[in-house]
Recover the amino acids of this structure.
């Protein structure tokens, strides 16, 4: 089966994208043809967005060396093996040279280079990176690369570095966004997420999760449900997950009830560095650290909200001096995305069985069948008379 893999975490990185290479190798070991188009950097929380008004420029990632290049490898004349993606050798190693230990593949982490390739082994594997979103990766992967491999039979978006359970995570997920794009392009799609419980990337556990993920994906493709556009699969990174239940689930409806998901940051001058702040890789790493440590509340946010409420109560409900301007005056501030994980965890704890968050909490793999649309609420028909 020809599978297009994308994600929202970018190319392999122990800090921000630790699972994708293992999954790709596991898919290849199962006999699948795997084509890979990824964002060139972290694109979490971006949903199914496309970035308009810019030309998308691909670069080319080589897993064997962990390096990125401005120009693709030449085909070498199209001989045997040309254009293939990471076939497996009989000795348990990928023929392109990256090592497999306990089922987990590692690649050297290189720096980007502008050097274009003039020649290469026909077995050298190359992935496409684009400076855009997971949804754009899918569009470009389906229509602008890999034509010689035949039609894509499945879009597999992930594995996400973290769970995408409950509405709060799913609605903003770039992993879900990539799968949704595949579905609206008429291709069966699966969004795959790995729910970690600590940041110790145990190679055996990741390998086991990847084997289970491939089995689940194969089963879903063979038993695709009528009317299903995509599936959201959440695999908990726990030892023995292959022997645990795989459950049909629904998405738990929840909401941000604890306040803002942005934290205010001090404005220290107006330099370019202050305006730009952390890059997406660094910020997402911070968020993942907060999630794994269970740092779910931001005390200063609560204090600010209390101060704001106290200020409103002290000033009264409306303007008292009619002669003065009623237009608001603003304090210049910067803001940083800081999702309130406590809202998610509380909603799961307070829910009953059967939803995606509950399944992962219990150590089960969650499979949720979805349609690629915003479903209307029932009971609203006919003319709306004002």
């Amino acid at each position: 089966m020809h599978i297009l893999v994308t994600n929202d975490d970018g190319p392999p990185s122990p800090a921000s994208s630790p699972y994708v290479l293992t999954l790709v190798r596991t898919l290849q070991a199962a006999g699948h043809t795997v084509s890979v188009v990824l964002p060139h950097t972290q694109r979490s929380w971006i949903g199914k967005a496309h970035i308009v008004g810019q030309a998308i420029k691909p670069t080319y990632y080589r897993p064997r060396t962990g390096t990125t290049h401005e120009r693709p490898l030449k085909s070498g004349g199209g001989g045997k093996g040309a254009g293939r993606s990471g076939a497996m050798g009989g000795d348990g190693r990928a023929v392109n040279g990256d090592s497999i230990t306990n089922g987990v593949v590692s690649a050297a982490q290189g720096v980007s280079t502008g050097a274009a390739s003039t020649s290469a082994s026909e077995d050298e594997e190359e992935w496409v990176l684009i400076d855009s979103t997971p949804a754009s990766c899918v569009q470009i992967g389906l229509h602008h690369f890999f034509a010689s491999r035949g039609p894509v039979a499945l879009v597999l978006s992930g594995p996400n570095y973290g769970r995408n359970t409950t509405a709060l995570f799913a609605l903003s997920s770039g992993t879900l966004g990539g799968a949704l794009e595949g579905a609206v392009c008429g291709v069966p799609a699966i969004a795959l997420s790995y729910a970690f419980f600590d940041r110790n990337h145990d190679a055996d556990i990741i390998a086991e999760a990847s084997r289970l993920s491939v089995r689940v994906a194969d089963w879903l493709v063979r038993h695709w449900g009528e009317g299903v556009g995509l599936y959201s699969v959440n695999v908990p990174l726990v030892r023995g997950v292959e022997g645990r239940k795989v459950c049909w689930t629904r998405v738990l409806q929840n909401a941000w009830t604890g306040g803002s998901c942005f934290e205010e940051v001090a404005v220290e001058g107006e330099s370019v560095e202050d305006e730009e702040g952390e890059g997406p890789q660094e910020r997402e790493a911070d968020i993942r650290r907060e999630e794994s440590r269970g740092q779910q509340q931001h005390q200063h946010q609560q204090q600010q909200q209390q101060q704001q409420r106290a200020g409103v109560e002290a000033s009264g409900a409306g303007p008292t001096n009619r002669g003065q301007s009623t237009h608001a005056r603003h304090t210049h501030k910067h803001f940083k995305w800081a999702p309130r994980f406590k809202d998610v965890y509380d909603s799961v704890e307070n829910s009953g069985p059967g939803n995606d968050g509950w399944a992962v909490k219990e150590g089960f793999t969650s499979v949720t069948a979805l349609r690629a649309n915003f479903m209307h609420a029932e009971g609203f028909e006919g003319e709306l008379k004002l």
User: Anything to note?
Assistant: The longest strand covers residues 154-161.
